[in-house]
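User: Run a structure prediction on this.
Assistant: Running it now.
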Amino acid sequence: MRKKSQNRPIKHANRLTRFWQDYGPNTYPLDIDLLIEGAIQSSGYNACLETKRGSFDSFEGCLLRVAKTDRWNILINENITNQRRLRFTHAHELGHFMCHREQQNRFEDSPDTLNDFQQELEAEANTFASWLLMPANVVRDEFDRSSWTVDTLRKLGNRFECSLQASGLRFADIASKPIAFVVSRDGMILWAKKSPSAPYMKAFCSGDELPSDSEAGKLSASSSRHSDDVDSGHAWNEYRRSAESQYFDQTGRGYQYTCIEFEE
C-alpha cells in the first residue's frame, strides 16, 4: 500500500515534467506559474487552478476549493521573504492539487507540514515538489559525477532554487554513487536519505543518535559550527569508509545537514 502511495506523486510530477520538457521552455529553475498556465489551464484537467499571492497570518501556502465549483486557488503568503521556500511551498500546494483534491477541499501548510516527511499527504506533496523542481534526468546529467559535499549541495540548491534540505534529500534519492544525506537537530536524526547503492548505516532512522565518532556527532556535541570535508572512517558503516561534511542551517531552526559519501 505504501509503495503505491509513493508512486502517486512521482507519477504526477513526471507527467508535468514531460509536458514542460517536451512542450514548454524546458528551462530550470522551473517557472511554476507558467507551468500551471500551460499544463493545468489548457491541457484537459477536470479542474481549474489559479495562484494568488497576498498577506496571510495562518499559513505559508494553502490550496482552497471555491465552494461548489471545480475551481481551485493556490494562496501563497508574500510575507515569507525566502524565495526558495516560497517556490517549494508553491510546488507543494500544486502537489496537493494533483494528488489529493478528491480527498479534501482545503489544505493549509506551515513550516511544520512543509518539513513533514512522515504524515502521508504532506510527505506525498513534498515528494511531488522535489521531483517536479529537480527532475531526475537534469540532476543526474549535471551532478551525478560530482563529489557529494556541502559545496555540491549548495550548487544543487542554487541550480534549482530549492532549499538545501530539499536538494540534499532529492539528490540522495537518485544518485548513482553510494551517498547519504542526514538532517539532524541536537544530535538526533530527523530525516535521512541514502542512495540505492549506499551500504547499511549505523544511524539512519528518525530518532537515532548521530554516531559519536562521526564528524556530525562531534560537532553537534561541541560549540563548533564549522567543518571542512573530513574522512569519517567507519563512523557510519563498519566495513565502508566514508567522508562527510556539514552545514548548519542559518534560519534559527537548528538543523544540521550532513553529506556522506562512501568509498566504492
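The chain has a mean pLDDT of 91.
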